[in-house]
Specification:
It is a single chain. The protein has about 425 residues and is α+β, with helices and mostly antiparallel strands. About 15% of the residues lie in helices and about 25% in strands. It is built from ten helices and 21 strands. Strands 3, 8, 9, 10, 11, 12 and 13 form a seven-stranded antiparallel β-sheet that branches. Strand 18 and strand 19 form a beta hairpin.
Length: about 425
């Protein structure tokens, strides 16, 4: 769906023993895989362990009347941003020859001979770390209990240890269809101890109840987990709506369900910004408190950040969009101007048509060189894909950066655009 986010904090570096070796303890940090908003560890402690969920009815109740919409939504990145593990939902291969991550030259690492193997067993899918030589081989295996990330860029996997939730050390990278070290993970180590706190889960699940008021906790009621971003995340609790529809109450004093399309532009954008705004922020209320249609500043307080000429593309889609002249010049433009969250991704050409609803292709400085072809190139040119320095994996001596589309709509003078022979576009 997604960093989302200079949203992710690497919070704590420490050394502990595992396999009689060392590993690094860090926060979860993978926007495309696992979102962890900045300020996650500044959340206030509250008397209540969880928010009131009595009026939430779940997607099954929505499907009875909105099955056509729900059927499409089932395949969207939002819906798939967390799932229970199956042979379908886990995208990485468990077939021999493609199920291993070998750390090259690991003789120089904290855990000599370190290898990871992904195995399918009768009781689930497992990540297994092995290190050592000869008779001194040490092994740890943990089952994949939760999938995070829709797979557009990749996936990260979590496991339960009692009522505590942790991140697994190996992730799946869609580019190249390969296993990699989980982003932020130290190459050559096997770390199974990264806790998953509530603010990290907030953008990857509809709900889970924490068992502690500590904002850094990773203890949860496992039965309360509602994976994926479901209908009520955006439309609000549906119990009253369902009751009215079942009773065929035609005269309704007020809407029984929220329709974000009828929100003001600011509130529409706030709804998306809960997860798609990369500015650092301090949580004012516990995770999963935000309700669609409410001002986001009642739930999060922005933290001062340095002004940079070219912000990182990681997770800050809303912040970058708000820098755009297109956005500042319009009173109506919002995220939903281009994105329909109920459907799977559209083609770049269809997004370019959105641009041409306000602009003419002839007004582009490259139109005389490229002719009508430029009508399909608006997005690649004015919203280029860039590498992020926030989501980085160091795997077997190689550094891999996630790539994301920049939502700062503007002219990029030195851009080399696909389909132009790699030549720089001087606009």
């Amino acid at each position: 769906m997604s960093d989302i986010l200079a949203v992710l904090n690497i919070i704590k570096w420490g050394l502990r023993g595992m396999f009689r070796a060392k590993f690094v303890f860090v926060s979860v940090s993978a926007s495309f895989l696992f979102l962890c908003p900045a300020g996650a560890f500044h959340s206030p402690k509250e008397d209540q362990l969880g928010t009131d969920r009595t009026d939430y009815v779940g997607d099954a109740s929505c499907q009875k009347c909105h099955g056509d919409v729900d059927q499409n939504y089932e395949h969207t990145p939002h819906r798939l941003t967390s799932q229970l593990p199956t042979s379908i939902s886990v995208l990485g291969s468990f077939q021999s020859g493609a199920n291993s991550l070998i750390i090259v030259d690991s003789t120089q690492t904290a855990e000599p001979g370190l290898q990871f193997h992904m195995e399918s067993r009768k009781d689930g899918l497992f990540e297994i770390a092995r290190s050592g030589w000869g008779s001194h081989v040490y092994q740890r295996a943990e089952r994949i209990d939760l999938v995070t990330g829709s797979g557009v860029r990749g996936q990260t996997y979590l496991y339960w240890q009692g009522d505590r939730l942790f991140e697994l050390p190996v992730s799946y990278w869609s580019d190249g269809h390969r296993w990699i070290n989980s982003p932020g993970y130290i190459d050559g180590t096997a770390d199974f101890s990264r806790p998953v706190n509530p603010a990290c889960l907030e953008c990857h699940a509809t709900y889970i109840q924490a068992l502690s008021t500590d904002p850094a906790t990773n203890r949860y009621d496992r039965r309360s987990l509602v994976p994926g971003i479901l209908c009520e995340s955006c439309h609000g609790p549906g119990a009253n709506h369902v009751r009215q529809e079942l009773r065929h109450e035609t005269k309704k004093k007020e809407p029984s369900i929220l329709n974000p399309a009828k929100f003001s532009r600011d509130l529409q954008v706030d709804l998306c910004a809960e997860c798609h705004n990369g500015i650092q922020r301090e949580a004012l209320k516990p995770a999963f408190s935000y309700v669609s249609g409410q001002p986001l500043n009642e739930y999060f307080k922005p933290l001062p950040t340095p002004e940079v000429e070219h912000p990182d593309v990681h997770g800050n889609q809303v912040g970058l969009l708000q820098r755009s002249k297109c956005y500042r010049s319009s009173k109506q433009m919002s995220c939903s101007t281009c994105h329909d969250v109920h459907t799977t991704g559209q083609s770049l050409e269809s997004y370019s048509l959105k641009c041409l609803s306000c602009h003419t292709w002839q007004s582009c400085g490259m139109s005389r060189k490229m002719g009508h072809e430029i009508m399909n190139k608006c997005i690649d040119c004015h919203m280029p894909i860039e590498e992020t320095n926030v989501i980085v994996s160091q795997t077997a001596g190689q550094v891999v950066h996630a790539k994301m589309r920049n939502h700062w709509i503007k002219v990029y003078p030195d851009l080399s655009m696909p389909g132009n022979g790699g030549k720089s576009l001087r606009l």
